[in-house]
Target: VWFA domain-containing protein
Amino acid sequence: MIRRFLSDRGGNYALMTVITMVPLMGALALAIDYTELIRQRQDTLNALDAAGIATAQQIVSGATDDAAKAYAKDFFEANLGHVQPANTALTVTLPKDNTGGGTLVLQAALTYKPYFVPVAAILLGKSSGNTNVNFTARSEIRLKNSLEVALVLDNSGSMTELGHGSSQVRFDLLKSAAKQLVDQLAGQAQLMKQVNKPVQFSLVPFAASVNVGPTNANAPWMDTTGVSPLDHENLDWSTLTSSVLPNQYAVQSGSYYYAKGSAWDATQLNQVLTRFSIYKSMKRISSCTKNSSNVCTSNIVYAPIATWGGCVESRPYPYNIQDTAASTTTPATMFVPMFAPDETDNVDSNSRPANNNWHLDVTTSSNNATRQKYMPKYFTPGTKVTPAYGSNTGPNTSCSTTAITPLTDVSVAAGQTAVKAAIDAMVDVGATNVPEGMAWGWRALSSTAPFTEGRSESEKGNDKVLIVLTDGANTYYTPTSVTAQSYSGTNYLQGGNDLAGSKAIYSSLGYLTYPGQTKPFGSTYTYGRPFLGTSSSVTKTDYSNANYTKAMNEHFATLCTNAKDAGMIVMTIALDLDATKTTEAAQMAALKTCSSDSRFRKDSAGNPLKLFWNSTGATLSDDFKEIGNELSNLRIVS
Model:
């Protein structure tokens, strides 16, 4: 049949053949061109992705901008397969020029010139016109951003316990895992030669407080002029009168007290009195010649009782959970040195001493709140001052941690060594104040004071990462629920008394009430800082450890939101927390809620995984490796 059709020369058959062949040939042409178009499009996409990955590797290895762009073009064109390079155009946007930051963007335009479509158009009696087909493709590759990491690590006393599933204590496990992370990311930093300080680490040890370092005593963000409403908490300068100490007294003028009398040294005379004034002036008699009654009569040598250990008060709400810059125009934003007041010498009916009785009261008043805030005692040298000279003792009580290590470049050996040495130097003692630790971690990453080593928040391609680890719930204790300082008296193991009515042991949060005062001098606060800004579920007259934890948890939740809104990536780790215990289960839930979403890892439903690790002592090292991997990704963005 077909042979007869092909060999027939009849006019009708010829005409029918011509008519039939036109659409057949047009369809065939379209099919061939469509298939080729699909192939060239896929070749272009493959070449684009391959060029992106290869160029990203060149960039992190230190290629210049021009070299990276030239490499991308050459690699792209060499992998086009059946596509003619002349029919393509490649646009390269380097990470530093990318508004999103941290990604290399390659965009290709392909002009496909059909083989048969123009002929088919003519056969169909249509104008051929411009039958070229244009399309664009985009490939986005996320590079290893520059990193700024704050390790906010729990240094509380519970870190001395054995890690679950391990024969080592939690603190040793933590130190090992943290140093492992530093090494891992320092190795990545070696590949980022085109970036200045590609990976920086800050260390923020926390317990009941955070130590900003005593070298910052005169920093502009420290309250050296007594403007903060916290400066006068627990201190009543009006008791330091000329009738009590004629040569060293205080005179009020407006909202300040000034140093008067010949016993003040030249640097303090006529200056505003602050907590720093007490640290500078407190003296003890270290040696002397005594008479037969054992009283110093001559050759008296004085020595300081204590110098400021470097810990600061938690700022009043809302500044305690913000990175608001310190300014004397907003006094509550200034940072105030911690000064644990000497508590009463008296014991309660159970013979329990005060938690922090480190100086003679030097007053006959029977009112224990008065004895606690009586200022002349700090300016009356004696030989009976208790051993209050070191960290976490005397006026530095609850200042137990080592100082913050500001952001340090670990791409150089000296920086890597310094950060790891700071991790090794951490000590484990004290309560747990996660909000205070995390707030200072944020401030360590910030580009503004107190610590200014961080890159600008607007800089592209930089990640600011808060890694927060704790092994317990937020804690803040009533005086009778903890062991009193061992030098306070013979019955210190029974817990401390609260004859002055402070309702809490002293820490960076101060007390819960103001003994003997409706509110501190110059303050508008009617109750203690832990309760400021909390909801009605926190009863302001409930002076219990559980209620204190509830208040701290509320501050923590708001802090997490604030930090993430400011662009911080938050990674949280619950170490050896027990989900069967109410307070620890609540802390685990709070840590998970606080964490950011992963940008790379997803669950089976395609949802981003939370950057939260429920770790044990046995898994901590592997979990830190996973954290390092999360921060070291290089991949095509889908």
About this structure: The chain has a mean pLDDT of 87. The first strand starts at residue 88 and ends at 93. Residues 11-60 form the longest helix (50 residues).
